[in-house]
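--- STAGE predict ---
source: upstream dedup step, 1 unique chain passed
mode: sequence only
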Amino acid sequence: MTDVHNKDPQRPADTTPTAMPRAAHLGFPREVDRLPLLVGAQRQLHQLDGVLQPLAKAFADAGHELYLVGGSVRDALLGQLGTDLDFTTDARPDTVTRILQNATKNVWDTGIEFGTVSAQIDHWQIEITTFRSDSYDGVSRNPEVQFGDTIEEDLIRRDFTTNAIAVRLMPDGSQEFVDPLDGLSALVERVLDTPQAPEVSFHDDPLRMLRACRFVSKLGFQVAPRVLDAIKDMAEQINRITPERIQVELDKLMLGPNPEQGIDLLCDTGLADHIFPEIPAMKIPPTRQLRHKNIYTHSLQVLRQAIEQEEPGEPDLVLRWAALLHDVGKPPTRAPKPGGGVTFYQHDLVGARMVRKRFRALKYSNSFTRDVSQLVYLHLRIHGYGGGEWTDSAVRRYVTDAGPLLERLNMLVRADCTTGNPKKRRHLHAMVDNLEDRIAELRQQEDLDAIRPDLDGNEIMQILDIKPGPAVGKAWDYMKQLRMEEGPMERDDAIAALKDWWEKEVTDD
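--- STAGE serialize ---
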């Protein structure tokens, strides 16, 4: 078929796509640089025949069109198609619901006020949205939902041209490629550009500026110069977006293959100054009197080295945030060292507090905030280990304080070594290896993952003949500290130790 182009991104082309035979290519131009995309898309979309053709026939029988659209088409072109499929149609939501209910029992309409009906067919999660031609109030990002009549009208309202490509699905299984905004060329050139003028697009929905950073992380693309300029000029408008929505986009950015690139764009455009100012604050430059490594560059390198330790296909959001923010407390704690040099005294403690404050402002869950801030707080702990001088009790404290974060903490420590000195690097990694061996040895002897006093609260009250109150908690804390120092104790020894402590406690009082 003929490829549909529109060199003016302000206006969709007035053209009708032609039919593509089922066994043919998708109708893209056969330039050599596009062939890999064509082959990947054809292979990916053929996997969907069992879903696409029955759906297309059901909509055609009802007198409506159906298109695969947006991220689904983009990902198919890039050979990265997942299990979430996005469609658009001229059918109104009630008609879409009826058609889907005839195809599957798993249908839900939680997004129907925005024209979206969702369903599950086999292992595919699908969303079908009626053509939209929304208008925006310029205050929030919430549009006044208006249904459209044409696919071109729907595509031009989307965020980026790479997401404004559609494939019309025919009941006989053939397909038509619809690209009035030349999104394919943007994919080939690996550029993010907006269908409309970026100032219009971002004014309608400022979250799209943050989505640009997210797609840079996910796809490794560059933003078009006019898009970069618009984000810089309009960064302040990100304040129209709720913290919850910002959090979602930030996490998607952090989970991408190239989060360092997304973070760089976030900082270079000024967006970070409004939503996470602690990150660009790490760009504090060293001075002649205060010489130190570039904190921001170091933090991005630590993030990359943490990612390299993850299991393939299993990005760890807690680890990634902790790696990026582990030194976030350095700028406010930077001070000259007596006799020359620089110190960042207690930057681990200060950094943990800063993480908690920012994550609460962004509405992160308490458990997620606690995990990231605890890793930031503990990331220097191992440096007291030296050449293995820690006692068993110190190792127990390290394990207990890290709790379920122990593996992540050791990964963070390894990632935090960015020195170019091979000897120093080997020394740090050997230190972590040695500590992990010590932990393994102690685990063979005792349950390090559940260190608790040898006597529980009820036993303490019975042995000391006291009632519930602060004294029980104090006794429990003493027995836990004793457990840390001495390891597991025989019951008789634990009772004797408790009584000795209690006698001294009562005498002191």
